[in-house]
Amino acid sequence: MDDKTAIQSAQLRQLLSVSKVSLIASISLAAILAYMQSTVIPSAPLLVWCGLTVLASLLRIGLVFSPYSLPSGNAARTHLRWFRFGVIVAGAVWGSAGFLLFPDQHPRHVMFLIFVLAGMTAGGVISFSADLFSAVAFSLLLSLPITVRLFAEGDSVSLAMAAAVLLYLGFMILSMRRINRNVSENITLHLDADKREKEMRESEERYRLLLRHLPVGIFHYDTDLIITFCNDRCAVMLRNSIDCIVGLDLTHLKDRSILPSLFKALKGEMSHYEGQYEATFSDAKGWIYMTCAPVLDDSGHIVGGIAIVQDVTEHKSAEDKINSLAFYDPLTELPNRRLLLDRLQQALAASARSGREGALLFIDLDNFKSLNDTLGHDMGDLLLQQVAQRLTACVRQGDSVARLGGDEFVVMLEDLGEYDLKAAAQTETIGEKILATLAQPYQLGAHEYRCTPSIGATLFNGHQLTREELLKQADIAMYQAKKASRNTLRFFDQQMQDAVTARVALEEALRKAVERQQFRLLYQIQVDRSMRPLGAEALIRWQHPERGLMSPDQFITVAEETDLILPIGQWVMDTACAQLKAWQQDALTRNLVLAVNVSAKQFRQADFVARVQAAVQGHAIDPALLKLELTESMLLENIEDMIRTMNALKEIGVQFSLDDFGTGYSSLQYLKRLPLDQIKIDQSFVRDISSDSSDREIVSTIIAMAQNLYLGVIAEGVESEEQRQFLLGNGCEQFQGYLFGRPVPIEQFEAQLQRN
């Protein structure tokens, strides 16, 4: 239907809707007019007019109340013509009243007739305003006859009335044009609105159909995270119905991994999520890719969000499969050479940042070719799979195991010690574990098979060597292992190999020393300004069965790295307390204070306070005679825990001295909080105070600081009277060093006391 036809259909509908009321009004006025004029008009013209009125009314009734009165399209155009014909007939009949019902001898009835016709003209303007032709035709046909009749009378009053009727008619026609224009504009606007509404409904329907049948899941949610719409694909993905999903509160999801993306959209930002998702009300689970965007109203305010969800499980599976083929060995599922090199590059970068060593272990199976030749390649593949499983079980989390090809494997160890010797020892430990594990029998189908590996190892620290150079070094070391006798581990550097061997031997010997109590305590005297003995420092020595008396520098580091320092430290504590108990029996020694060194690991034991208390109470000694010496390096971590432990021991009565002061990183902020009794000046400063002005300044500053903190101060390593005099002159009144006595066994120490 074109616009003109649509407008005509709308005009017709409006004309017909009003005509029902106007028809009733017209019939009523005709009856009133006939009744009023019946007394002054002869019967013949009155009956003629009434008959014409009835016929015109019947015609209009037929047009208005016809079952086809609201046609559309071309039929509307035809019906409009018939409607206009009915209007013309009605207008002509009413206009004939100007002649047939005009009582020229009765002015009052003439006025009534003019009044009725004027009212009908006004009513016609309103009723037929939708169609300008009908309104004008009705008004002209109704008004012109009475105007002519008035002009025919000829008297001045009639002429004036005729002129008034013409003016009234002109005013009505002008009003009709304006009213018709407004009505036409309203009809046009209404039709445009209907058209837009229809187009919008059709667009919305297409949009909904599109959303419902898109191959991706879509759901809408409001600002309260309540789902307001869900399409079919989304319901299928979640294995649920749309009715169950719509109205769901997203904050109650079992899998909340998507919530940050949904919240981000409500803040006006695009967001994405990719990962595993598990449905709340079904067993649906898969890998999804979701895009979220805000939904805005006409004012630009966020009223919710829309999420587009794609099930990419199959794509992800295919991607993982491709990735696996590219980076993993299909037989053992271990990383291949390509992935190993990538991880090695990352490990070199991490080592450069942290300063910690790493290692590569190149593993080759001994006599693998003979297995393939005798039992076949299937058994060889089965062996490789079992070797891969055992290697993976041998290493730590974060280390890597890779298969280069054939029977060659590589183990990459990261985050080892900061020093070569320690890192090599850790590598040796893991290598020995691999040797023992791979040497266990394998069950290859019905065959039990034994296989040994040859392992080459090399250390790395930062980017000193390239990835290829490191692999080459490990490969060379592996061939050294094969030449040596197979089923063994060799380091690329022979000196490193010798050092590792020596360290392992030292560790083993140290364990035996703990078991056999091969340790001794030596005692070095501590004196005051008058050279009177104040006490002693207990210094441990290892009485090695082959190497003789060993100082702590030769074994304490290994003891700390292997945690053997804990039983050793406990032995020192018990032995020192036992000595204090013995001294309490003699008036010469009962007031001597004994200083004992405590390691960081020992001090940080959860039950360290209880151990010290047990030793003090077990030997029934005065705790004030026991002085624990702590090093500055212990202040670098867990300072709050350290303060709590010291305070607990301080309550028992134990004293504290800060050993080697000036060589570490003491913070004055922490130093003033520590319940210390004494600071010990390190011997490295005391040694050169006679010749080095810097050392003299440092020592003077330490003494002054200790005095300001109300702490005692003792200098160790005093070997000359000149050193003692300088220290004494600066306020240090306690000393320890060769000037007063070397570390000696208890018998010599007590003899020295007797001589003094």
Automatic annotation (TrEMBL):
Residue stretches making up the EAL domain: 503-756
Note the Pfam families from the entry: EAL (PF00563), GGDEF (PF00990), PAS_9 (PF13426)
Which residue intervals define the domain GGDEF in the entry? 356-494
**Gene Ontology MF, one:** cyclic-guanylate-specific phosphodiesterase activity
Give the top-level enzyme category.
hydrolase
| Regions crossing the membrane | 21-40, 46-70, 82-103, 158-176
- Entry keyword annotation includes Hydrolase: yes
The record's keywords, sorted A to Z, are:
Hydrolase, Membrane, Transmembrane, Transmembrane helix
Q: What is its EC number?
A: 3.1.4.52
User: Which InterPro entries does the record match to this protein?
Assistant: Biofilm_reg_signaling, EAL_dom, EAL_sf, GGDEF_dom, Nucleotide_cyclase, PAS, PAS-assoc_C, PAS-like_dom_sf
What NCBIfam families has UniProt attached to this entry?
Answer: GGDEF, sensory_box
Q: What is this protein called?
A: Cyclic di-GMP phosphodiesterase Gmr
User: Which organism was this protein described from?
Assistant: mine drainage metagenome
